Amino acid sequence: MNMHSADATTAEEALAIQETIDSEMATEIAMQDTLLTPRFYTTDFDELDAIDVSHIRDEWDPLIDRMVSDPNKGHFKKNADWDQVDWDAMDPKLKKEFIDFLISSCTAEFSGCVLYKEMKRRGSNEEITKLFQLMARDEARHAGFINDALREAGVAVNLGFLTQKKKYTYFRPKFIYYATYLSEKIGYARYITIFRHLEKHPQYRFHPIFKWFEEWCNDEFAHGEAFALLMKSDPKLTRGVNVWWIKFFLTAVYATMYVRDHQRPAFHEALGVDTDWYAHEVFTKTSKLSEQIFPITLDIDNPRWETGLKRLQKANVDLANAKKQGRKFAQMGASIRAGLAFVGLFSIPSKKHVVPAKTRLEPAY
Ligand SMILES: [Fe+2]
Ligand SMILES: [Fe+2]
Fold first, then answer.
1. Of 209, 87, 79, residue with least CA distance to 154
2. How far is the CA of 185 from the centre of ligand 1 (A)?
3. How many domains are there within the chain?
4. Is residue 70 part of a domain?
5. What spacing in Å lies between the alpha carbon of 219 and ligand 1's midpoint?
6. Distance 223 CA to ligand 2 centre (A)
């Protein structure tokens, strides 16, 4: 019997199962590196390896034990709940945006898998390598499951090819913590918001993959918890000048999500989700969660926040159009406007608060 990536216990096993089929178009999209597309990262693995978790053991051990117990083993595969998808009958605009969503999600999952797997391979600190192995396992399953869905539409991403050929961006470990922590928590907030919305309005569930989002986002939640604890292990990471870096990453991650989601109007319409409402909902949840470790949150209710995001979004649309038409001067103008909009967002005063002594949270949305 053929094994499925959902039953794999390591990332290597899951990836070997997935490496069989792919399609050029999907891999090409996944290869793109722009400000808005998921990237692959590399870092200073020795610095990561030197982390000492002994003084946060009371919170660390239960998290690792839970991940070792592997509550989602076998979850990420099609079963009787997987309704037949009629790709040919799908509105072409929706189909294009949805496939784009799946490819971009698959690339993001796989990007996490590659980074975590590399950490496991290069490290010698047993606590740290164990954590990264467990997270790589989860991300490999997630990426594999999305690829299963894509395959039904006649596309699939070549994960082995991506590992070898996609450009790797170097980030210092602390930037990896901020960026990855946020992407795990925002990933949780995104999936749970869609899941709860479709629970209430199942008529909008146009594809079965959304039924898997609850357990899925619990994995991402746990990964976010791990990064919160890694940051807790070194209090300098959330103090002094680093608070500015935290603000920068919060702004960049939120703004990227906003711009990217607004590029998929048909997808959100099919889900019955207002994109502005969705963005605000996800930012609210992510901000609330990130109070566990970050001493500031963005003031997302400040009127400048919404107008700044709209300006950034408009500049990005203009930039894409100018690029398509090869209008260099217009491209430059749009880039400057996007930069200014980002600076405007970044300059909104943030909200300060006291970080709780106990960090760990449970998924509650
Ligand atoms: Fe994931
Ligand atoms: Fe994750």
1. 87
2. 11
3. 1
4. yes
5. 7
6. 5
Ranges of residues in the chain whose predicted pLDDT is under 70: 1-3, 16-23, 34-36
Residue 66 token pair: 């839970």
Count of beta carbons in the 10 Å neighbourhood of residue 153? 18
Please tell me the distance between residue 11's alpha carbon and the centre of ligand 1 in angstroms. 12
- Dist. CA 307 → ligand 2 center (Å): 31
Length of the chain: 365
pLDDT for res 1: 43
Q: How far apart are CA 250 and CA 258, in angstroms?
A: 12
CB 115 within 8 A of CB 102: no
If one counts every other C-beta atom within 10 angstroms of the C-beta of residue 90, the result is 17
Neighbours of 313 (CB within 10 A): 20
Both structure tokens of 358: 């106990």
Q: Is the distance from CB of 49 to CB of 123 less than 8 angstroms?
A: yes
Handedness of CA 290, 295, 298, 299 (dihedral sign): positive
Return d(Cα 253, Cα 178) in angstroms, integer: 10
Residue 142: which of 168, 174, 114 has the closest Cα?
Answer: 114
Helix/strand/coil for 42 = strand
Question: What is the structure's pLDDT at 20?
Answer: 47
> Separation of 305 CA from ligand 2 center, angstroms?
27
Residue 114 falls inside a structural domain? yes
Write the pLDDT tens digit of every residue in 153-209. 988 888 888 888 888 889 999 999 999 999 999 999 999 999 999 999 999 999 999
| Burial tier of 175 (Cβ tally within 10 Å: 0-12, 13-18, 19+) | middle
Helical H segments across the chain, by residue range = 11-18, 24-31, 45-49, 57-69, 92-122, 126-152, 159-165, 173-200, 213-232, 242-262, 265-270, 275-290, 303-324, 328-346
> What domain range includes position 220?
5-236
> How far apart are the CA of 7 and the centre of ligand 2, in A?
17
* Contact in structure between 223 and 155 (CB atoms under 8 Å): no
Separation of 186 CA from ligand 2 center, angstroms?
10
Give the number of other Cβ atoms within 10 Å of residue 208's Cβ. Answer: 15
In a domain, 160, yes or no: yes
pLDDT value of residue 135: 97
Residue 293 in any domain: the answer is no
